[in-house]
Amino acid sequence: MDSANEIPAWLRLHRCLVSLQHDVGATNAIICDLSGSIFCCGLSRRPQDDIAGRSHASLGETEAELARELPAIGEMFERVLRARPRGKDKPGAHFTVALADEEPFAYAQSFAGVYVLLLWFSGPFTPFPVAAKLRAALPVIESLTVMLPPPEGPTRGQGAMSMRTRR
To answer: I want to staple 120 with a disulfide (CB 3.0 to 4.6 A). Which of 20, 28, 96, 167 is the partner?
Structure first.
């Protein structure tokens, strides 16, 4: 049984997210669905992390970093969902949310009807350059995301990590 580290689409998506993070100055990039299940993430570059010399991480390292930050990511995701423009909360609706001047500092772009790319920033940012770089990267990110096996599939172990509390 393959691990996510052995799934070529996951590895390529992870590298795309790390590259996008670097290009826009984000502290993390995360792909999730609207239910809050995380499919892939870049590398955490939160201030407390020592990232010197890190360009790739194993799935285990990435999941461990993600697990530590899950409560904060969940709060950010909930805030992004609440900030969607009116009428964009319907299934399949396309939305963009920029929380550039208030915590949590985030930029979110929906794609493929059910996925959201979340970029997390450590402080205020200018959304226009972020939007331009994301727009250029999104076709590749979208194609790789839809190639991933479903989170409940046999190659994903326990399934996608959920950042939302189940009610």
So the answer is: 28
Q: What's the pTM?
A: 0.79
Q: Are 30 and 117 in contact (CB under 8 A)?
A: yes
User: pLDDT tens track of the chain, all 167 residues?
Assistant: 455 556 788 889 999 999 999 999 999 999 999 988 888 888 776 554 443 344 445 555 666 777 788 888 889 999 999 999 988 988 789 999 999 998 889 999 999 999 999 999 999 999 999 999 999 999 999 999 998 877 654 444 333 445 544 44
- CB-based burial label for 123 (10 Å; 0-12, 13-18, 19+): exposed
Domains and CATH numbers, the chain: 4-48+56-149 (3.30.450)
Task: Give the max Cα distance, the chain.
Answer: 45
